[in-house]
Amino acid sequence: MSSSDRPQKPAYRSFVWRLWTVGVLLLLASGGLVARAVHLQVFNTEFLTRQAAVRHLRVATLSATRGVIKDRNGEPLAVSTPVDSVWVNPSQLLEEPDQIRGLAAALKLDSGELTARLTRNVRKEFYYLRRHMNPAAAAQIDAMQVPGVHLLREYRRYYPAGEVTGHLLGFTNVDDKGQEGLELAFDTWLHGVPGKKKVLRDRLGRVIEDVESIVPPSPGQDLVTSIDLRIQYLAYRELKAAVQKYRAASGSAVVLDVATGEVLADVNQPTFNPNDRGQINPKMFRNRALTDILEPGSTFKPLIVAAALESGRFSPRSLIDTNPGFIKVGSKTIEDKHNYGVMNLATLLAKSSNVGAVQVSMKLDKEMLWSTLSRFGAGRLTSSGYPGESAGMLPPFQGWRPIGQATMAFGYGLSMTPLQLAQAYSVLAGGGLYRPVSLVRVEKPPIARRVVSPETARNVIDMLEQVVSAEGTGLKATVAGYRVAGKTGTARKSSAGGYADNRHTAVFAGLVPATAPRLVIVVVVDEPQGGVYYGGDVAAPVFSAIASGALRILAVPPDDVDAAASRPPTWLAASVP
């Protein structure tokens, strides 16, 4: 055997040594890995689970739907629709500058502006980029899978009737919390309770799994209002037409259900559309029918007459001598447009005699007069619960001077809201009973309290029917087929140093049908222009149109069918101041 055929023992031994060395190292490494795995899986499980949860397990908020606001017949007035908001973790997105330009384009933002916003809020982990996006548009952004950018499901309020119910309902803010109107008054009732759930997120923050529900979201409760949307539309249309026709500064109209005290319509002009956030102006928020006060003018005279009858010093047959057509109270002279001579209380109201009203008022005891007017609701908040509602003003009788008691007889020196005036007339319409006003649907008539006797209420209604006749100031308030009782009012507006000669408030307050009143309607048109400003010319036709339509909607049977055939249409009636 040659020397080249002999085994190379040193090389063989070296190979074997290396093989054993590698084997031992691999065995030690495997043992270390096994030991580490056992340590992690058995002895350190709780720590690792906690760390995984910290890094990937999150608690997500589940938005709750706000309750629906409905009219009395179930028609939706305010609903919440699902939308998506885009939020971001600024620090994560700033680490991907190449993604900012595409995201800015999708959001219709300047990339420089977006970068600046992210930089200013880099220490925040949650920052809104865009609120209330259309879900389809938001889904396109989500599909881009930009690091740190996420969607959050929210709800946005939508008002199907728009500006027709704007003042009554108010609106919510971007977080769906009530800010004005019924949205604010019943926010606790309408507002839902958000829920919570645990979710698993990936390294980009995207939800990859819902782990468990912690608290399910609780939707808000629905609110059924007293409003009849059909009558609301009708009143809105007629009031808007009158305000535009007479180029008035503003207008209000209220329709009350006599039996329940429910507000069937509450409209104002000018108004706003709560769906258009860009249009919302704080000056437009006021629900004038409930928050703005006015001196009611001659529409207050029926309450004075009711107090006079209730005192026992006057009866429907009592005569008042208004000769020579004016009366002096202290240094002030109060006069009528004409000298009406001797008249009864019905003629006093039909001709709207200031002199006659003053004579009646001055013969009544101050405390008794104040008490009666107060029970009618003058100077007191109604029970509507509407935010910002005004109580008006009825001065305490202890401070009345003769001129104050005199001017109060024809509606000056005190103030009321249109709703308060409507409630006062509903006392007469309801047989002398005062019922609380409600903006929420009433299931059964509320408990009423007596203000005046049924006889007094009936007598005043009979007198007010003469106002809406050829001999009265309210002829244009007539409604074909129905007997109407009401009163016109034309009040000069106060200004620096007294009352303006060229600024007036035209008012009509009435009830229909007069035989068994179902509705009370008050119409106010503020500062009509063009030389026509009397309540009988401006506000009475609006009352007629609203009453006519509302009675048909409610299917109230006519109570004056025979007279309807011979009575001329309202628009043909002669102008009576």
Most strands sheet: 5 strands, mixed
Low-confidence stretches: 564-577
Query: What is the CATH C-level name of the largest domain?
Result: Alpha Beta
Q: What does the overall shape look like?
A: elongated
**What structural class do you assign from the helix and strand content?**
alpha+beta
> How big a fraction of the residues is strand?
15-25%
Number of strands: 19
Q: In whole angstroms, how far apart are the ends?
A: 148 Å
CATH superfamily grouping of the largest domain = DD-peptidase/beta-lactamase superfamily
Number of helices: 21
**Oligomeric state of shown chains:** single chain
Helical content (DSSP H or I, runs of 4+) = 25-40%
Describe the structure.
It is a single chain. The chain is an alpha+beta fold and 577 residues long. It folds into two domains: 59-224, Penicillin-binding protein 2a (Domain 2) (Alpha-Beta Complex), CATH 3.90.1310.10; 229-273 and 287-572, DD-peptidase/beta-lactamase superfamily (Beta-lactamase, 3-Layer(aba) Sandwich), CATH 3.40.710. It is built from 21 helices and 19 strands. The protein has helices at 9-43, 45-56, 90-94, 97-106, 111-120, 135-143, 166-169, 181-185, 187-190, 229-245, 288-291, 301-311, 345-351, 354-362, 366-375, 402-408, 418-429, 454-467, 535-538, 540-553, 561-566, and strands at residues 57-62, 69-70, 76-88, 127-133, 149-158, 195-201, 207-215, 223-224, 250-257, 263-269, 319-321, 326-329, 332-335, 342-344, 433-434, 449-450, 485-495, 498-512, 519-526. Strand 2 and strand 3 form a beta hairpin. Helix 12 packs across helix 15, helix 13 packs across helix 18 (454-467) and helix 14 (354-362) crosses helix 16 (402-408). The chain is elongated. The N and C termini lie far apart (148 Å). Mean pLDDT is 88; it is low at 564-577.
